[in-house]
Sequence to fold (50 residues):
Amino acid sequence: MSLLTIILNILLPPLAVFMKHGVGTTLLISILLTLLAWLPGVIHAFIVNQ
Fold:
C-alpha cells in the first residue's frame, strides 16, 4: 500500500476505493459508510485496499 493510498484512505475513503476498484458495489458501500460516519468509511477503505 503506497503512502498516497494511505492518505486517501484517511482523508477521502470513497476516492481511495474508487481508484482501486472503480465504480461498483464496493464504492457504494464506501460512500454510504462515509456518509453515515467518517470512521466506518475509513475502516472499510483500509480493509478493501489491502
